[in-house]
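BUG: 3D viewer hangs when loading the predicted structure for this chain

Environment: internal workstation, default settings.
Expected: structure renders.
Actual: progress bar stalls at 90%.

Input used:
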Amino acid sequence: MKRLKRYQYERYAILCRASYPTYFDHTQYGFSPHGRRDIYDRWRRCIIRVLWRENDDAVVVFRGSQTAWDWLVNCACTPKTITIDGKKCHVHWGFHYLLTQKSLSWQPHKRQYRHMTDSQFADIAQAADHTVLEGETVLTKLISALTPFLHAGKHISFIGHSSGGAMAIVAAAKLNHQFGGAIKRIVTFGQPAAGMWRFKQLYPFSTRTYRICCDVDMVTFLPAIPFVYWHVGRLLWLHENKIYTNTPSLFRILRVLYSWLTRPIAYHYMDKYIRRKDYFDQH
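Structure tokens produced before the viewer hung:
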């Protein structure tokens, strides 16, 4: 399994953060002026952005939870049956629903667009799917957006934060038959578990999935049902200025508790003082 490089991590993290605001200038991140397609949920909010440039791979950004409705869907952790290579397994119902809900086109007269500049509004209008596949599911629109890349021989990366990461995992599994060869990597940040044990066994991208967790991010322990929902891929745990690989959940909790208990002593070490050298540039 290849290592995730620093520039890839930083790029994907920034794109995930940028998926939340209504306005997003994709050209600032090196994508082509026309290299963007926005896919909306049933509430006409952008839930997935497909980004690309002419001579490079495409990136699919899955947005995480923003509203109370999103969090209610996240709590719907009953199992949903899907098939991978003809074999049945179970995933989290809520994350599956986010992909299979109806996708409605954007409405240019909505309040959040009124205070935008003409150029900002034009960017969103260009990227919006308008009435293409109106009323079809989010996943169907995603397939429509990705098909040209398959024909062009482009590779695709799926990335997402929080529930967006779980959506990326489920979407990759469901699209394996059509796009398995084109999906280059899946990178998630603070992602809850998306499937049960059988799903973990059948998941086809284990060696191409990087699951990044920062310290004791509690969302990564959800759903809080031990030995029912399981994570997939390679865990990269960022803790105490180090990266730990595939650290068990219990060990993560115990190590964080130990760090909290010993923190008063740890701050006495000279390396803590040396790391603060940059503070004096602004002093």
